[in-house]
Amino acid sequence: METKINWEQKAVDAIDAIAAKIGAGTEHFWPILVEQQIIEGSVTIGLSLFFLIISSIALFFGVRIYKRIEGETSSEDFLWWFIPAGACIVALFMTAMNLSLKTTYILNPEYHALKDLMEMMK
Question: Does the structure show a pLDDT above 60 at 1?
C-alpha cells in the first residue's frame, strides 16, 4: 500500500530546521530562497542569450568568410574553418538547452527552492 507523502509539511519542517540552525525565522528564509532561484534563472538566461548572440554572429561571419574564399582554399583551410564552425554549432545547441532548463527557475521558483532545500538536507 502506497502512503501519501506530505511534501509541503516536509519542506516546512526542513526550512524550520535550517532556520533554527542559522537563527532566522521561516517567514524570512523561504522568500529569500525563492528570490535566489529567480535571480539564478535571470542571470543564467541573460548570459545564455549573450553567448547565443555571440555564437550566432561568429557562425554568420565564418560562413561569409568561407564563401568568399571558397575557390582559393585547400583542404587544410577547410579544416581550420570547420573546427570553429562546429564549436559554434555545439555552443548554440547547448545554449538553447540551457535556456529551456533555466526558464523554469523563473516560471516556477518554488519548485527549485524546494529541490535545493531537499539537497541541503541530504
Answer: no
Q: Which amino acid is at 107?
A: L
Distance CA 65, CA 81 (A): 9
- Tell me how far the alpha carbon of residue 13 is from its chain's centroid: 29
- Contacts by 93-102 with C-beta closer than 8 Å and gap 24+? 95/48, 95/51, 95/52, 95/55, 96/52, 98/44, 98/48, 99/45, 99/48, 99/49, 99/52, 102/40, 102/41, 102/44, 102/45, 102/48
CA–CA separation, 55 and 43 (whole Å): 18
Pair 52, 95: CB distance under 8 Å:
yes
The answer to whether 92 and 59 are in contact (CB under 8 A) is: yes
Contacts of residue 96, defined as CB under 8 A and 6 or more positions apart, other chains included, come to: 52
Judged against a pLDDT cut of 80, whether residue 39 lies above it is answered with yes
Contact between 62 and 85 (Cβ < 8 Å): yes
Query: Would the pTM count as exceeding 0.90?
Result: no
